[in-house]
Amino acid sequence: NWDMKCPASCTPIIWDSMLHTLKLRDKFSTLSFLERCLVTAALYGDMVEWRLWQVLAYYLDQSSPLSSAFDIVQDNQSYLKDQTKSLAVQEKCRSTYSHRQHSIHRHILLGNTDKPVQLLLEVEQDSPNFYQDCLRASLISSVSDSEVAQSTIKLVATNLIANDHLLEGCQLLCLIKKAVDACRYMQNFHHYNEAIWLAKVALSRDEYFEVMKYYIDLLVNNGSRHLGILLAISLHYFDKAAEILLATKLVTVSIFNSYCKFMLI
C-alpha cells in the first residue's frame, strides 16, 4: 500500500518502467508530447513528475498500462484483478490462524461466500475459536434476501461497530450488499486503507468517486499532495488535480492544464 506519508515510494517494477521510458530518448523528435514529458522527467530522475505523466498518459489515451506497483492509482478493474491474484498467493502461503482470518475477511469484502465458509470450517476442533468460527460459517451460508434477515444483520453490524468490532461489523454489511455503508464506517474510524480497498473492489463508479474525493482531500490536508494528484487524475477529476498542482507551485501545472484541455476538446 501507498502510505499517506510516503506516496512516492519506489519499487523494482517502478524502476524497470522508468528505465524503459529512458530507452525512448533516442527517438525524442518523433515522440508525442506526453512521451516527451515522460522521457524528460526520467532523464532528470524526477520520480514525482514521471509518475504524474505516466498516470496521465494511461487515463487520457490508455497507451501506457499501469503496473501493479501503482496500487490504488490503477483503474478498478486492473486493481481487482491484481488483488484477486495476490489473495490467491496469500492463501497458499498462510500458516497461522490470523493469516486465515485475513483471507476470510478479504473474500467477504469481495462478495464471495463459499470460500470464507470453507476456510472457517478448517478450524481445528480443539481451537478456542472453534465454536465462534462454526457459527460464522453458518451465518454466512444462511444469509437470505428477506427483509427481516437484512434488518437483523444490519442491526447486529452497527452494534458490533459501535462496540469496537469494526471489521466484523463491516463484513456483515458486505454480506447484505451494504459495502458503501461499510466504507463510510471505515473512513469514520480512520481505517483508510481498508476503505479504499473496499471502494475499489466493490462500489459503483458514483459511490467510489465520493469515497475517493473525501480521501483526496484528506491526503492533501496531510501533506501527501502528489498521491492526491494521481488519484484525482485516475478519477478524471482534472480540475482538482490542477488545483492541487497549483498549490505545489510547480510549473507543471500550466503544461498539465493545457494538455488536459487539448485532449478533452
Write a concise keyword list for the protein shown above.
mainly alpha; disordered N terminus; 265 residues
How do you describe this structure in short?
This protein is an all-alpha fold and 265 residues long.
Write up what this structure looks like:
The protein has about 260 residues and is mostly helical. The chain is about 70% helix and about 0% strand.
> Mind telling me the C-alpha Rg?
22 Å
Averaged pLDDT, please? 83
Helix content: over 70%
Q: Class by helix and strand content?
A: mainly alpha
| SSE pattern, N- to C-terminal | HHHHHHHHHHHHHHH
Strand content: under 5%
Total number of strands? 0
Compute the number of helices.
Answer: 15
N-to-C terminal Cα separation, in Å? 35 Å
Unreliable stretches: 1-9
Helices and strands in order, then pairings?
Layout: H1 12-22, H2 33-43, H3 47-61, H4 76-93, H5 97-109, H6 114-120, H7 130-142, H8 147-162, H9 166-175, H10 179-188, H11 192-202, H12 205-221, H13 225-234, H14 238-248, H15 252-264
